[in-house]
Amino acid sequence: MSEQQGWPAPRATGAVSGTVTVPGSKSISNRALILAALADGPSHLTGLLAARDTALMRSALVSLGVGISDGSTSVTVTPGSLKGPASVDCGLAGTVMRFVPPVAALADGVVAFDGDEYARERPMGVILGALRTLGVQIDDGGTGRMPYTVSGTGSVRGGEVTLDASGSSQFVSALLLAGARYDEGVDIRHDGKPVPSQPHLDMSVGMLRERGVQVDDAEPNRWVVAPGPVRALDTAIEPDLSNAAPFLAAAVITGGSVTVTGWPSQTTQPGGQLPDIFTRFGASATLTDGGLTVRGTGRVQGVDLDLSEVGELSPVIAAVAAFADGPSYLRGIAHLRNHETDRLAALETEFNALGGDVKQLEDGLEIRPKALHGGLFHTYDDHRMAHAAAVLGLLVDGLQIENIGTTAKTLPEFPDMWSGLTS
Ligand SMILES: O=C(O)C1=C[C@@H](OP(=O)(O)O)[C@@H](O)[C@H](O)C1
Ligand SMILES: C=C(OP(=O)(O)O)C(=O)O
Question: Best label site of 43, 70, 83, 128, fewest CB within 10 Å?
């Protein structure tokens, strides 16, 4: 397979049906690793995601002095005294570039951060500025972007900080996750347009509370974390529901039936909204002990959806909308311009290159279904662009996906799983 040709996206020959088991959640895995690293004793984690983003998080924590046993999905994390000098490769992982600096601030010594070329485009200024307000010395050459160094003294004062987290919920989560270990805890106020990705904020708060940390989030746009220990906790990570999205989408657009095993009855993952979202498109969703089953009807309705809470699902949802019987509007997702690539521009460009009619709105996308033709779909090193392309490829002849390997960011098994479902 040459890079020029890309990966031939499997074409569905009929209704796609099957059962899929997806590995651990990226967002829960990387939070569990951070919280175990800051805890008061060793924690055993099972169901951990083994993918590029979690490998980068593991390396980052180990380089700061944390012990992590060998093992891909089952590890023991043993906190150690955090020390520099260290170098952290963030790759393109938002959870590494945003969540690790507040941890590095607790280390004694200098910690240098860098990442992929495009990682230097992802906004960092808000979290670096907030850390400075909390007493941390940071050098980013005045850019508000990568590369930067965090020079820790072994402790952080903490206290009050106001920031604008409308660009990414990760700015708030980053401070929440480390804040209990700061001398004064942390009292975060958001001032700006709404913070996206509420489920991810609930995930941070929920996981802290499970570990005995006091978090007060009763007032809108304010989070107060009391100083104190983070209790060690042995925990099993939920499957990654966002990575389940393309598989379920296959059922929706082909009139098939796909079951994802191990679907939690309660979750803070944004993918918890997928049953509702696919129902809006006209499919049905049933949760049983066997998992979540989504059944397509062969007909896909256009939708008007506010995806501000679940932005990371947007590329796959856009692909489903491309086969609807009327236009769709995906709103509340201006912050997708700060993701692995500018996802609004990338979706518009790539869908339209296949003959589609997609238009960027100020805060989202308008998708008017049109007959699509094959071609090379560029992924911009974005795993979810690759997922969207795979969904389109089910119903479009001759679609090739450039750099399918980019799915290794959160699901290295994607090409095999996808071929398996569609063969
Ligand atoms: O905290 C997290 O684990 C995440 C938060 C969200 O970021 P944004 O709020 O920047 O969209 C989400 O899109 C990302 O995939 C993971
Ligand atoms: C936005 C995403 O990732 P990151 O954690 O790198 O921000 C994503 O996975 O869709």
Answer: 70
